[in-house]
Amino acid sequence: MLQKLRYKLAQFMVGRYGMDQLSQFIGWLCFVFIVIGFFVARPVFSLLTLVLILVMYFRVFSKNISARYAENQKYLTYSARVRGSLNKTKGRLLDLRTHHIYKCPSCGQKIRVPRGKGKIEISCPKCRTKFIKNS
User: Fold this and answer.
1) Are residues 62 and 31 in the same domain?
2) Shortest CA distance to 50 belongs to which of 40, 37, 60?
3) What distance in Å separates the CA atoms of residue 56 and residue 73, rounded to the nearest whole number?
4) How far are the Cα atoms of 5, 54, 72, 86, 116 from residue 67, in angstroms, in the given order?
5) 17 and 62 inside one domain
6) Global pTM?
7) What's the half-sphere exposure (Cβ side, CA atoms, 13 Å) at 102?
8) Total count of domains within the chain
């Protein structure tokens, strides 16, 4: 029974675009608007959620694969900067547990030094200036 249902769904989806990153983002956005709608009793959130769900399903079941692919590529291009900066910030925050970041007093170059080594002499890789700091 379950295999038959899976087969019918797979047959229905043949030639259709399916889920991509933009559709997933729209789905998460719908979830956020639903949660906000619980706390803020405004019909605009319900209407916006409904419109986004319809757009998401339109994209998933669309047979115009080239247009949906182009939309997804635009989304990935625009969101790449945001995702990159978020990943960079996340890496820096995780790195703060094990390393200090110091700026060279002469050129301003950022230098990453491991924590817990006591007083150390740091040599700037850019201008070769030496300075002493606690790690």
Assistant:
1) yes
2) 37
3) 16
4) 29, 17, 9, 28, 55
5) yes
6) 0.64
7) 20
8) 2
